[in-house]
Design brief:
With about 375 residues, the protein is an alpha/beta fold. Helix content is about 20%, strand content about 20%.
Length: about 375
């Protein structure tokens, strides 16, 4: 039966076509307009699992194994929360709209027919959500403790969806023992690279990808397998190209301390993890900026509890092609950014490391003012 269109009232399809999505971000550097910043309320030390302990520094892994399932100590929470509040205030002063996920009690136990766990935190939206243009993709993570983490963002995602954004969820993984290599041990220097993940099913963290318009760059890691990379490649289709960055890190997890696009034709690389002679050919016209050695962390508690390596100095957030938010403590990085023609904005987020990262990890840029373009040869 034909549907009659009433005069003056557009068809539903036409309404959908003319609606402007509130979500739109194609790269890491277009002018930032709206961003999601993580929360610390309800944060719980993640449940003990080989996929967790193999990915964090040995000292933190021992601490995590003993304290898993407990709340984070108030001292760690207090310092990190103060810095996080200052970071949010800074973003707002720069004219950026800041959105926050729902607060969640991550101490509650949950599970599937195959396993049970307690949660972690929604401190790092960059890990579980990937924005490609006007689409938000919920990623299939490999940590059992993060299985339902995207639920804390559902209030925001549903709002974006109702206003015109596209919303996709990758296949929910089973996370059975078949996904993980039994008796896995991280390779030592000189040994062939190996990963804890099998190819049992597709898993990936969004933070293993960075965007440069039609081209995405990814590192295979202990939370992202080849099947996960292939799932995203097929999902995005021929409009996008995904290039793998080889990492020499013995415990790889997330690309944003390894390979960080800062502006069109400019990329910051980790000299310890990346062989610049083996970068993809599409980057041959780009300026490759070598990250300086990070300033040492003196705080003994932070050295014990940080879930991240020393190269967190690279975990910066671009406000636009020139302005970049970087850690105040890492003066070597601030000076290097100035030499390269950027305008660093110092900010403190050093004590966020026990919760999984720094400025890039702690955020998800929802809208940047720009269009989909190609920036590579």
């Amino acid at each position: 039966m034909a549907v009659e269109e009433r005069p003056g009232i557009p068809m539903a399809a036409e309404v959908a076509e003319t609606r402007v999505s509130p979500v739109g971000s194609h790269n890491e550097w277009d002018p930032l307009e709206e961003i999601i910043v993580g929360r610390l309320e309800g944060a719980t030390i993640p449940s003990n699992h080989p996929v967790v302990t193999c990915n964090i520094p040995p000292r933190a892994a021992r601490w995590q194994a003993l304290a898993s399932g407990f709340r984070y100590p108030r001292l760690l929470l207090h310092q990190a929360q103060q810095e996080l509040d200052g970071f949010v205030t800074l973003l707002q002063s720069l004219g950026v709209t800041v959105r926050r996920p729902d607060a969640v009690d991550y101490k509650k136990r949950f599970g599937t027919p195959d396993w049970s766990a307690r949660g972690f935190a929604n401190s790092c939206p960059r890990d579980t959500l990937l924005v490609i243009g006007d689409e938000i993709i919920e990623t299939p993570g490999a940590w059992p403790s993060r299985y339902f983490e995207t639920h804390s963002y559902r209030t925001l995602i549903k709002d974006y969806f109702r206003r015109g954004a596209r919303w996709t969820a990758a296949p929910k993984p089973q996370l059975t023992e078949a996904l993980y290599e039994a008796d896995f041990r991280a390779p030592r220097d000189g040994e062939p690279m190996r990963y804890i993940l099998t190819e049992f099913e597709p898993v990936f963290d969004a933070a293993d990808f960075v965007r440069a318009g039609r081209d995405l760059f990814v590192t295979r890691s202990n939370v992202t397998n080849r099947m996960g990379i292939e799932w995203l490649r097929r999902h995005l289709g021929p409009r996008y190209h995904i290039h793998e960055i080889e990492s020499r890190c013995r415990t790889p997890m997330h690309i944003d301390t390894t390979f960080v696009p800062l502006a069109p034709g400019k990329v910051l690389v980790n000299p310890e993890y990346v062989d610049v002679d083996r970068l993809p050919d599409v980057l041959r016209s780009w300026d490759v900026l070598i990250a300086p050695e990070p300033d040492p962390i003196r705080d003994p508690l932070l050295r014990l509890t940080s879930m991240c390596g020393k190269w967190l100095s690279m975990n910066v957030l671009m406000v636009d092609e020139k302005r970049v938010i970087a850690e105040r403590h890492h003066t070597g990085m601030l000076r290097a950014l100035e030499r390269w023609g950027f305008e660093p904005i110092p900010c403190e987020l050093l004590h966020y490391a026990p919760f999984g990262g720094s400025f890039h990890c702690a955020t998800l840029d929802v809208r940047r003012r720009g269009t989909l373009e190609s920036y590579v040869d």
